[in-house]
Records
---
Amino acid sequence: MKKLFMLFLLCFILTGFTAYAQEANEQQVPTLISISFKNAKIEGEFSPEINEYDLTLDNPEISPTLEDFDIDGTGRLFVNYILDDARHQKGICVTLEFESGSTIYNFNYTNAYAYKITSNNSLLEITGNAVEVYPEISDKYRNYRLYIPSDMTTLKLTAVPKDISASVNIPEEIEIALDQEPVIPVTVTASNGETRLYKLSVKRVDKTTEEIEALMRSGELKTLAEDELFYRKPVFYIILASVILGILFVALIVSTAKRISVKADDEDEEEFFC
């Protein structure tokens, strides 16, 4: 009887502990609280428990991009585009990754563009977790710097074409060693077949992924491109002011020296009367 009671007590304790562990694990899973897109509107209210949504484009000719999101907990958000067999966009796939797994949300276009032949092979945006492209993507440049954390070894990027009927060829996942700073090619193909090649030169910064994510959450991180944006630093204005003052000082010395020289010449010159 005593053994039976101890067995029952042990089962009761194990059951309670298991339930507690499961509840604690559920509480630790990050949750996507809200999300929004540029040039698109989610049909209905977003809920973390619902994984499939309809997405209506404001302008069906332009690719929608991630605008804002809010995560409850520690997780990383990745955005990819759902393509059909012809590599035309038909939706957006959003993945919330965390330590114990991931949650996937699909946003399917309700008014997909009636694709037509165009020559638009421009790039609109390149995004990734804890990375930054400099300068900002535009039609002016083909070569960019991609700033990444010092400890990043797996690089996941999302490239978006400006024209929704165009397609982009970029590796979904890039494995790089800690001492590597490769050049990543990105090719945008217009619907008429014309291509445009962009290049991303990887450059590591002196901050880890965790440090950058913490700065992003706090809103303290302005840019990773510190070397490129030297002109924004206070020391730049000090140097600029010093240079300007130096130039003015030299100009003043030269002007004063000229006046003294002219005056001395006038005093030494003999008077002449007609």
---
Amino acid sequence: MEKDEKRQLIPLILLLIAIIIILTSFNIPKITNRTDVIGDILEINLDQCKIELIHELPFYMKFVDNGPSLTTIKCSKKTDKEIKSKWKPLPVPPDLEKAFPFGEQVEEKYRIPNIEKGYYFYIDRNSDDYKFQPPDGRYSVAVYDSENCLLYYYSMDTY
């Protein structure tokens, strides 16, 4: 290679290095699965758990994240211990009952079955300036059936 050819390659090499530096400096988000997202919301580790059933509005009927969804997850023994140490035992207190999808007032596919031995979790995902009035708003609830190691995660977004 002659000197002129080498001089022409230098700008191309520098450009290639700059492109590589720019592309690697962006924080590319990790693609997460549904159990990762639910685990983050519920503040538990669901790595060894398996989703068994998902009920939600079809995509064409949803406006962004509007509407209910119910996910049933088969939990591991590790998750069982974590839930029992972090969540509150059933029954759900009367002031939160409206937020939980129990009973006939809820469409069957979104209904959490009656569980006698288990634990529950509740999180209000509304902004601070919105007063929560169940069953409206943005919230997530979960009920854990400790006899069958089943977690029922219900999420509602009404605005």
---
Amino acid sequence: MQENKNIICYSVNTTDKFNSKEEIEKKLKNIYQAMLRRKHTDERFRDISFIVGTSETKSSGAYISYNRTGKRGRPKRVVVGEKIPWHLHIYVISIGEYASTFSEEIIKYLKKRGFETSKNKNDSVNNALNYLERQSLYKRTGGDYFKSKNSNLLK
């Protein structure tokens, strides 16, 4: 898939680690809702897309597996790899010029709640999202980038 050169991607990095799955799921939900609120209330952020994920796996050697039990329904998704403490992954994607501003707003929100954060610009959107897909057990997306027919990254 050819990448659009106009797409800008920032990763918002946190150094915070979490002890339990329940604790990080609660934080993930709160951060996701805050990002949605900012996206829908500020006109500048209408074209922003984002993805938030959680992981307890070291990135090197991580891969997705499915536990098939023989029962009905979708098999359980499992990330296999070296286990480390739970942590967050946040990516902000935009075709417009406000990805950096949106990232700064999220960093302000996280710092206000005691997170240590930083922001990096990613050269390749596909590499960043494939990294998150390979490593994250839970993820939530917002925005039109993930709903478009051209985006087959998260299938």
